[in-house]
Amino acid sequence: MIYFPNFFPDKILYSALSRYHRDSGSENYKLTMIDLFGEKTVCASLLFPSHLATLCERMPVGSITTPNDLIANHTFLPYYTPFIPEKRNLEMKLIMNSKQGNSVYMKIGKTASSLKSQKGLNYCRACVTNDREDYGEAYWHRTHQAEGVLS
Which residues form the domain of 68? Predict the structure, then answer.
């Protein structure tokens, strides 16, 4: 990979992956997954993405992005961390770094949740305007995707 989009404050990883897909000109999302993760069967997860170590290894030369940085600043694990045991938090980080992402939702207990998941992605019109002024482009914010926000 010779290019990867910038990570702005509160930008969810899913937004960066989507921007990469758009900017790469690829018409096939499976080819994008091969670029990003080396496999076409990887699913770009909104809340708890996996294969983060592989993604960081494939980033452009000179990139200082680490899996721990992605988890802390661009995924939802920090929102859940205060409510789960430390051991489970560490297990979640290991799973998100690994290629075993299919078990991450089970580990957090998300599949058993009685809360309804939102359909689509949320955004704030004021944030879109501010993002375009500040960064030259708008992006999907992590805080806007949290359950119960903007609903």
Answer: 13-117
119, amino acid identity = K
Q: Tally the domains of the chain.
A: 1
In-domain check, residue 127: no
Q: What is the pTM of this model?
A: 0.88
| pLDDT tens digits along 43-56 | 888 889 999 999 99
Q: Is residue 123 part of a domain?
A: no
Cα(10)–Cα(144) distance, integer angstroms: 9
Minimal CA–CA distance to 1: which of 55, 50, 46, 47? 55
* Residue 146 CB burial class (10 angstroms; 0-12, 13-18, ≥19): middle
Reduced to 3 states (helix: H, G, I; strand: E, B; else coil), residue 53 is helix
DSSP code of 40?
Answer: T
71 lies in a domain?
yes
